[in-house]
Amino acid sequence: MSEILKYQVRVFYEDTDFSGYVYHANYLKYCERARSDYLRVIGVDQNAMFAEGQAFVVRKMECEFLRPAKFEDVLDVETRLIEMSGARFELAQMVRRGADEIFSAKVTVAIIGPSGRPQRIPSDLAQKFSR
Amino acid sequence: MSEILKYQVRVFYEDTDFSGYVYHANYLKYCERARSDYLRVIGVDQNAMFAEGQAFVVRKMECEFLRPAKFEDVLDVETRLIEMSGARFELAQMVRRGADEIFSAKVTVAIIGPSGRPQRIPSDLAQKFSR
Amino acid sequence: MSEILKYQVRVFYEDTDFSGYVYHANYLKYCERARSDYLRVIGVDQNAMFAEGQAFVVRKMECEFLRPAKFEDVLDVETRLIEMSGARFELAQMVRRGADEIFSAKVTVAIIGPSGRPQRIPSDLAQKFSR
Amino acid sequence: MSEILKYQVRVFYEDTDFSGYVYHANYLKYCERARSDYLRVIGVDQNAMFAEGQAFVVRKMECEFLRPAKFEDVLDVETRLIEMSGARFELAQMVRRGADEIFSAKVTVAIIGPSGRPQRIPSDLAQKFSR
User: Fold this and answer.
1) Helix (H, G, I), strand (E, B), or coil: what is residue D127?
2) Using CA of residue D115, residue D116, residue D118, residue D121, what is the dihedral sign?
């Protein structure tokens, strides 16, 4: 479960603000793209889940903004599953520019069912994450 | 039909980019907020429409970026219905900072039904726009 | 220092995603708007600070996503200064829809100077926050 | 000058709205990413230009929203230079999903100098576009 998946993003105009650097909330977008990519890689079809009334929802994020990134930077978003238990996933995500640490987050994700209530992680899904 | 509705926005960090000014695509967000406000003011409930499978969709926008706006600017978005015919609305929108013209757009909006196809403007809706 | 400042936002199309609810990263935008409003209310001119090479930067955010918000919801963002010490501010922010708690965050903000390095909170600024 | 450059994007949560489809203003972001990519490919360094007080600014966009795109769609953004004259570039951009046309835009871009005023296209820049 400690495998790290990398996802690359480039910083565009839309990501920056007038300070000259990436707007802080946009690191959460980068991390969400990386998590969606992670799911695709392990074979989870979010559209199919959604059609059955299931969805992943973020419950908690502990974010640290470590260094600024700027226009045209190429960033790596690393995603690592830390724990999977009951109805929750714990992920560690890190945005790097080469060796520099830019942003880190500890993310808690739950699965909700058709009722909108959290539900236990289905076993076929758990297997995809465990591989 | 030539009444002008005004909606005010303030420029926040999120709206700007590293050039120091408002990111061009964000004027479309301001215009969409002003159109949603316009609908609310004339008594159109978009959530209720959506629950019945109806939605407004933007078909065309002719945009002119006239002057830059910057952080903390207070902008007025003016919305005016130009024409309503068959299945389409034509709107003129202008973003101003005091007397300065910042952004203008001519917007064509259609209504789509449950099938995803455009449909004629329902008469009760047309009446709300005509008042 | 325990006074709570309220800032109101309305949920527009741009804020939601295909799940039907507000996209998680957008609560950080709401909180940033509320902090910018807070600064304006206590008399801090961020454009003037920026012209002197100073800026507020977010260092940490501990975020909890408590309930979903949806299109057309009217939300209150409450901001409260918890602590101000050396070069850091600690703020508590809560997004509510009426009595419902939607999103909460503990935010650590620093001031950086022309070198890009953190600097002690200037005394005139500290006074504005203390009033 | 009629060469077409392709840039690929994937639709993430952040790009969609509660209608279930891509939020209309986000096609302008996709087009801007594709233009930035285009500039990089022909050897234009926007950071270096910006350091000398020069920047590209969008003056006009004529946008047509042809078909909706949805979560996880993979889209191609095609960019083609139509004309370059005096201080202006005319570009045609098309967002496709396979054979389907999703969004098209005719974009007018100018170069502004340190004064914030439009300036003639520098000859070295014109050469990069002409190759």
Assistant:
1) helix
2) positive
Residue of D72, D73, D107, D109 best to disrupt the A interface, most CBs of A under 10 A: D72
**Which of chain B's residues have a Cβ under 8 Å away from the Cβ of D63?**
60-63
Q: State whether B32 and D25 contact (CB < 8 Å).
A: yes
pTM above 0.90, yes or no: yes
How far are the Cα atoms of B56, C9, C105, D123 from residue C77, in angstroms, in the given order? 29, 8, 11, 51
Q: Do C46 and B14 touch (CB under 8 A)?
A: no
- Closest among D18, D19, D58 to D35, alpha carbons compared: D58
Q: Nearest CA to CA, how far is C11 from chain B (Å)?
A: 9
Q: Is C17 one of the catalytic residues? A: yes
D71: nearest CA partner in chain C: C18
Task: Answer whether residue A1 shows pLDDT above 60.
Answer: no
Q: Convert the pLDDT of each residue in C1-52 to its tens digit.
A: 568 999 999 999 999 999 999 999 999 999 999 999 999 999 999 999 999 9
Instruction: State in words which class domain D4-130 has.
Output: alpha beta
Contact C24, A58 (CB under 8 A): yes
Contacts of C26 (CB under 8 A, 6+ apart): A25, C15
Complex prediction ipTM = 0.96
Answer for the pair B14, C32: CB distance below 8 angstroms, yes or no: yes
Distance CA(B47)–CA(D109), nearest Å, equals 38
pLDDT of residue D87: 87
Interval C77-120: pLDDT, tens: 999 999 999 889 999 999 999 999 999 999 999 999 988 899 99
Residue-level length of chain B = 131
CB contact under 8 A, C24 and A28: yes
> How many residues does this entry show for chain C?
131
Residue D72: predicted pLDDT? 97
For residue B14, list chain C residues with Cβ-Cβ distance below 8 A: 29, 32-33
A113 within 8 A of A120, measured Cβ to Cβ: no
Mention every residue, 6+ apart, whose C-beta is less than 8 A from residue A45: none
d(CA D54, CA D110): 10
